[in-house]
Amino acid sequence: MLRLLTYRYWKMALLAASIILLAACSATRLAYNNLDWLIRWKVGDYVSLDRAQKQWLSSRIEGHLDWHCRSELPQYLPLLDDLGTNLYTKHLDPSVLMQGLPNVEASADRLIGEITPTLIGLMRQLDARQVQELTKNLQEKQNEMNEKYLEPDLLAQNRDRIERAQDRLEDWTGPLNEPQQALLTVWSAELEGQNQIWLQNRQAWQSAFVDTVNRRDQPDFAQHITDLMMDRERFWTADFKRIAATNTERGAQLITDLMQLSSNKQQRHLSKRLAGIRADIQALQCTDA
User: Fold this and answer.
1) 3-state secondary structure 103-154
2) Looking at the chain, which terminus has fewer C-beta neighbours within 10 angstroms, N or C?
3) What angle do CA 98, 238, 9 make, to 5 degrees?
4) How far is CA 33 from the centre of its chain?
5) Is residue 200 a contact partner of residue 239, using CB atoms and an 8 Å limit?
6) In the chain, where the domains are located
7) Nearest in space to 49 (alpha carbons), one of 138, 122, 140
């Protein structure tokens, strides 16, 4: 649950990236229909719940899934259609992608607003031992990310960034051509040194979260958690604020340039993938009220 709540969902910079996140695995229906199991499994990475807490969380999860299926999934279809239309526009411009960002941000905020009361309720139920376990596991995860993304030298960081981006993109377009690969190299170089800024920002938010959980018996606890979840930019570091808008624009420019260099085969590949996501969303069955 905590992974879902603190995942970088709100850092999605582009409409394209947001829609892609709807199909993080190759079978949208499989992923969505097993979301409740995935949440219960991931909570075990951070804190061990007792039987009563697990039962309470299960009931809350069912309500969230039903809300999301009935209220949110239907709104993804027009976003998906807009994405397909925009990506195939001959004169695609970064501003076209940026125009869709407010809709995506609103969708993210609705999701976070829906699950924040559950986060508040769950944190209030934790005893001192569980909070200690949670704090330890969160910091261990942060340390793992620091080791993975900061210990390699800048050249290795750039290379790894290119490889990750290429793997994600090729799932949607098929193999990138040489000019597209060159674009990725330039894009990654522009982000050099930003791993540290991103992880420092993550650490700052996480520290504020842990401090708040340690005061879970205070009357303003719920408001503080709500602020952390819904007013996230207020907790960004100065360096992260400085790069956030620029990186969003760079991402939009990258997608625009990649599409302008795309082959007919790549466009057919992307079209097929988007159509598959649309069909999977339409096939999802909400539980009976």
Assistant:
1) HHHHHHHHHHHHHHHHHHHHHHHCCHHHHHHHHHHHHHHHHHHHHHHHCCCH
2) C
3) 45
4) 19
5) yes
6) 2-283
7) 122
- Go through the chain and tell me how many residues it has: 289
Distance (Å, whole) CA 278 – CA 247 = 28
CB crowding 210-237: b at 16 or more within 10 Å, else e:
eebbeebeeeebbebbbebbeeeeeeee
Residue 128 φ then ψ, to 5°: -60, -40
- The crossing angle, in degrees rounded to 10, of helices 35-43 and 51-67 is 140
CB 284 within 8 A of CB 33: yes
Q: What is the per-residue pLDDT across 48-95, written as a single tens digit (0 to 9) for each?
A: 999 999 999 889 888 888 888 888 888 888 878 887 787 777 677 888
By the 8 A CB rule, do 256 and 94 touch? Answer: yes
Q: Which of 227, 245, 243 is nearest to 235 (CA)?
A: 227
Structure tokens at 14: 């582009």
Q: How many CA atoms lie within 13 A of 233 on its CB side?
A: 8
CA 215 → CA 1, 44, 198, 208, distances in Å?
20, 22, 26, 11
